[in-house]
């Protein structure tokens, strides 16, 4: 069994990004929009800011009150679309319920949509065209490639169907010639389906949901879950890591697996956006 080290892959990607940035004529710029006072969002934005500083990417945070109107949010996005110093725009979710996040994503220029949520980029991903893919699934693909995990011809089961992870993950695996099954909360015979998988990607937000008896010998298991145990500082994934690892060929830990790659893939997308605009 091999533990897939997300920090190792992230550090390697960081060096590749630095090399790409030397070939740019301008400094890439990332603009993040944060609405309201969600504590988790504050942490995520702070981590993105820190990574931008490490890489030398210009970072701007636009913090809007939770009383902001849809019109004001859309106006800010349109201004950032026109700002030549901004290569990437990211709308940090969640946003308050009175706002239409889908309209906001549709407003972000596809050329600056470094989160990969624009309908145009989603469509390009489905059609196997060059696009910005969502950062977590794209980071997972880079991790699997770094560890020479064979994807072509394998049966991959994705557990979760969110627009952020599950659906784009399935498309990326399909584009890499895997046979893909998507499972979710309404799936019948989940255990039997998962047990047929060569590659399992779990993103459902239920601590230790995937147990040893659900995994076949030699499977590759990728855990996207981040779950805080009540009354504890301990964070666990969606996979019962200690028991499942005994049956795997490869497995990602939590923390230290997928997490580090998500932010680094965002940085890579920002640099790619800058490269595209210079062509």
What is the global morphology? globular
Structural class of the helix and strand makeup? alpha/beta
Any idea what the CATH superfamily of the largest domain is called?
Answer: NAD(P)-binding Rossmann-like Domain
User: Total domains, how many?
Assistant: 2
Q: What are the secondary-structure elements, in order, as H or E?
A: EHEHEHEHHHEHEHEEEEHEH
Described by strand count, sense and barrel closure, the largest sheet is:
6 strands, parallel
- Name of the level-1 CATH class of the largest domain: Alpha Beta
How far the N terminus sits from the C terminus, by CA atoms, comes to 44 Å
Mean pLDDT: 96
Number of helices: 10
Number of DSSP strand runs: 11
* CATH architecture classification name of the largest domain: 3-Layer(aba) Sandwich
Question: What is the third-level CATH name, the topology of the largest domain?
Answer: Rossmann fold
Q: Gyration radius, to the nearest Å? A: 19 Å
Q: Which residue ranges are poorly predicted, with pLDDT under 50 across at least 5 consecutive positions?
A: none
Helix content: 40-55%
Q: Which strand-content bin applies to the residues?
A: 15-25%
Summarize the structure in words:
- The structure is a single chain.
- The chain is α/β, with parallel strands linked by helices and 279 residues long.
- The protein has two domains: 85 residues, Rossmann fold (3-Layer(aba) Sandwich); 125 residues, NAD(P)-binding Rossmann-like Domain (Rossmann fold).
- Helix content is 41%, strand content 17%.
- It is built from ten helices and eleven strands.
- The strands form three sheets. A six-stranded parallel sheet has the order 1-11-8-7-5-6. Strands 3-2-4 form a three-stranded parallel sheet, with helices on both faces. Strands 9-10 form a two-stranded antiparallel ribbon.
- Helix 7 links the parallel strand 5 and strand 6.
- Helix 6 crosses helix 7.
- The longest helix has 21 residues.
- It is globular, with a radius of gyration of 19 Å.
- The mean pLDDT is 96.
């Amino acid at each position: 069994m091999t533990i897939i080290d997300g920090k190792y892959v992230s550090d390697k990607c960081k060096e590749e990004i630095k090399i790409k940035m030397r070939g740019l004529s301008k400094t890439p710029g990332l603009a993040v929009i944060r609405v309201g006072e969600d504590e988790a969002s504050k942490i995520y934005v702070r981590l993105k800011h820190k990574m931008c500083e490490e890489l030398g990417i210009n970072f701007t945070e636009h913090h809007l009150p939770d009383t902001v109107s849809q019109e004001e949010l859309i106006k800010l996005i349109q201004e950032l679309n026109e700002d030549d110093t901004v290569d990437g725009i990211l709308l940090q979710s969640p946003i308050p319920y009175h706002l239409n996040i889908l309209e906001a994503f549709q407003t972000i220029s596809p050329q600056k949509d470094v989160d990969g949520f624009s309908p145009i980029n989603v469509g390009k991903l489905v059609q196997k065209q060059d696009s910005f893919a969502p950062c977590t699934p794209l980071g997972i693909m880079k991790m699997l490639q770094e560890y020479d995990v064979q994807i072509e011809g394998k049966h991959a089961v994705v557990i979760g169907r969110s627009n952020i992870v599950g659906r784009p993950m399935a498309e990326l695996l399909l584009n890499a010639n895997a046979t893909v099954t998507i499972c979710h909360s309404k799936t019948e015979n989940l255990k039997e389906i998962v047990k047929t998988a060569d590659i399992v990607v779990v993103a459902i937000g239920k601590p230790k949901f995937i147990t040893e008896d659900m995994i076949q010998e030699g499977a590759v298991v990728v855990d996207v879950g981040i779950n805080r145990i009540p009354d504890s500082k301990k964070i666990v994934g969606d996979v019962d890591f200690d028991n499942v690892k005994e049956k795997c060929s490869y497995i990602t830990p939590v923390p230290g697996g997928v997490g580090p790659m998500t932010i680094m893939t965002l940085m890579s997308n920002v640099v790619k956006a800058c490269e595209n605009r210079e062509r």
